[in-house]
Amino acid sequence: MEFKFNNTKIEIKQGFNEIGGNFVVIENKENKVVFDQGIRFSRFKKFYNVNIQPSSASELRRLGIIPPSNEYDKIFISHLHLDHLGVLHLLNVGTSLFVPDKDIFEKFIEPYKESNTWTAYISPPIGVNVFDIKDNNENVTPLSVEHSAYPAYSLYYNNGDVKILYSGDLRLSSPLRILDPQLHSRIHDKTILEEYEEKGLDTDVLIIEGTNFSSASSPIQPHYFLEQINNIFDSHENSLIMISADPIDLEGLATLLLIVKNRNKIPVFLGSKLVKMSSLWNSRFQIIDKAYQFEEGNSIEFEILDEEEIKRSPQDYVIFTVKGNLINLGRELSDISKGSVIISLSTETKSETGEDESVEDNWYRTLGFIIYRLRISGHYYPYELKQILNTIKPKKVIPIHTEATSVMCEYVKKLGYTCASPL
C-alpha cells in the first residue's frame, strides 16, 4: 500500500490490514529508510506445521512470509518480537541494522545462532553492522514506549520534507505501573506522550498500530490482571505454581517476580533463554533478592536447585519457564504435577505469534494441571486512541498492524482526524 506526502513516498509493504509482519519503507530523493521487517505468521501457518519446516530463508521470502529487506541498507527495528524483527539472515553485508539496545539484542539473538531449526535464520550474518538505535545519523528519533518486549520504541522521522511518527507496538498502561510505581519509573522514566510533548514534536503523518481493534475479545485490564493473579495464589497457596513467561517481556516478568517475592516464595528459572534474560533484567533493575535455576547446559546465572527439593516442598517455589518446557517438566515431576497450577501468560494475539495451544491443552489435562490462561495486552486499548491522537495531533493517520483498518479509520474520523488515502 502506497501513500504520497509532498515528495516523500510511504510504502506499507507488509502490515497493512493484517496483524504482524510490519515492513515500512519511507523514501524521497535524498534518503530511504525501513522501519521493521517482520515475519508474517498468519502466512507462515499456511505453509508450515510441526511436520513441514522452512528449508531456507530464501524459501520464506519466496512465499511472501518475510519481506525483500536485502534490497535496503538502513533498517530500524522497533522491538524484538519476531513479527517486527523478522529473519535477518538474508541482509546484505554492509547493511546498517539499528536495534533497540545492542547489548540486549546480542543476548536475545544468542540462542538463535545455536539453533538447529529454521530459527537459525533469525540471526544476522557476519558483515551486517549492528548499531544501537539511539546512535543513528538518519534523523530518526527513537521515543521509548511500553510494550510486552523491552526495550521498545516508536520512531519519529523528519527527512526535511515530511515529519512521520511510526508507533511500532505500544501500550499506555501496565500492571507494573500499579504494583510498583518506583520500579516502573526506573524502567520508563516517562511515557511516549510525555516525551513527545517535552520535545515539542510535530507530526504530519502518524503510522499507528491498531492490534486491539481486531481483537475478538478484549484483553484484561491491568488492575484486574493483578486481582486475578492474587486470587490464584490465595487459592493455591499449598500447590506448586508454574508460570510461562516471555523472556523479553520485562514488565510482565517483573510484575510476577514481585508478587512471588511478596508472598515469600522463591522463583526458580527453567530454560537457558529465560535464565539469561532474567539475570540481565535483575542486574539492571534489581527486581529480586534470591532465585534459583535448574541445571541446564552452561547457562549458570543463579544458584542451582535440584528437582527433588521441588518435590519435597512444592509450595515454597514458583517455577518460571517458557511454554515449550512446561510439558516436559510436568512429565519429570510425575505425581507432583497432579493438582499443580499453570499460569499461562499471553500478551500478543495468535496472529503475531503463530501459536496453537490445542496440543498443550491436551497434555495439561493428561498431566493433571489446573490451567489459567491470562492475556494482558502489549497494545493500547481502542478507547486510548483518543488520548494518543489528541496529544500527537497528526495531520494524517495510517493504521497498521490491524485487520480492522476501515473500522479504525471510522473511529479516527469521529475523533476529528483524517486517515490518509492510498495512491
Write structural notes for this entry.
The chain is of the alpha/beta class and 423 residues long. It has 16 helices and 19 strands. The protein has helices spanning 41-47, 57-62, 82-85, 102-113, 175-179, 181-187, 192-198, 222-235, 250-262, 272-285, 307-312, 323-333, 350-353, 358-367, 385-392, 405-414, and strands spanning 2-5, 8-14, 23-27, 32-37, 74-76, 96-99, 129-132, 140-145, 152-158, 163-166, 205-209, 241-244, 266-269, 292-293, 303-304, 317-321, 341-346, 370-375, 396-400. It has a seven-stranded mixed sheet with strand order 1-2-3-4-5-6-7. Strand 13, helix 10 (272-285) and strand 14 form a beta-alpha-beta unit. The protein is globular. It starts with a strand and ends in a 9-residue tail after the last helix.
| Residues in helices, as a percent range | 25-40%
Main β-sheet description = 7 strands, mixed
* Total E-strand runs: 19
- As a percent range, the share of strand residues is 15-25%
Structural class comes to alpha/beta
Low-confidence stretches: none
How large is the radius of gyration?
Answer: 22 Å
Coarse shape: globular
Report the total helices.
16
Average of pLDDT: 93
How would you classify the quaternary structure? single chain
Strand order of the largest sheet: 1-2-3-4-5-6-7
* Termini Cα gap: 8 Å
Tell me briefly what this model is.
The chain has 423 residues and is of the alpha/beta class. 33% of the residues lie in helices and 21% in strands.
Describe the secondary-structure layout:
Elements: E1 2-5, E2 8-14, E3 23-27, E4 32-37, H1 41-47, H2 57-62, E5 74-76, H3 82-85, E6 96-99, H4 102-113, E7 129-132, E8 140-145, E9 152-158, E10 163-166, H5 175-179, H6 181-187, H7 192-198, E11 205-209, H8 222-235, E12 241-244, H9 250-262, E13 266-269, H10 272-285, E14 292-293, E15 303-304, H11 307-312, E16 317-321, H12 323-333, E17 341-346, H13 350-353, H14 358-367, E18 370-375, H15 385-392, E19 396-400, H16 405-414
Parallel strand pairs: 4-5, 5-6, 6-7, 10-11, 11-19, 12-16, 12-17, 13-14, 13-16, 14-15, 17-18
Antiparallel strand pairs: 1-2, 2-3, 3-4, 8-9, 9-10
Helix pairs in contact: 4-10
